Amino acid sequence: MVVLVVVLVVGMWEVKTSSAAPTAAECKEERRLGINVCQPVVYGKDPSPACCERVRVTHLECVCPVITPKLAALIDVNKAVRLIEGCGRKVPRHYKCGAITTP
């Protein structure tokens, strides 16, 4: 569960403009890939280049719907923002993604 939380938060910001929204199956695959490559972050490691790449390409449409209040309670938003920005992805201020709002 903690791995899912980190991956979801790590991949959740910067609105992407694409012509077609990902399908449910594509979203499920994006989340699976993120969990696999970003798992070491849960154990205090820095994100790997592969994890950062996943952070940069993950669609908001795949992440925000699964951020429930219960899941949001497990997330340190400030730490998540630092990790995301460290991977080169912008995090807008006061952005609402599921049950989380960025500082």
Automatic annotation (TrEMBL):
Residues 9-97 form the Bifunctional inhibitor/plant lipid transfer protein/seed storage helical domain. InterPro entries: Bifun_inhib/LTP/seed_sf, Bifunc_inhib/LTP/seed_store. PANTHER family: BIFUNCTIONAL INHIBITOR/LIPID-TRANSFER PROTEIN/SEED STORAGE 2S ALBUMIN SUPERFAMILY PROTEIN, BIFUNCTIONAL INHIBITOR_PLANT LIPID TRANSFER PROTEIN_SEED STORAGE HELICAL DOMAIN-CONTAINING PROTEIN. This is Bifunctional inhibitor/plant lipid transfer protein/seed storage helical domain-containing protein. It comes from Vitis rotundifolia. Coiled coil: none annotated. Gene3D superfamilies: Plant lipid-transfer and hydrophobic proteins. Keywords: Signal.
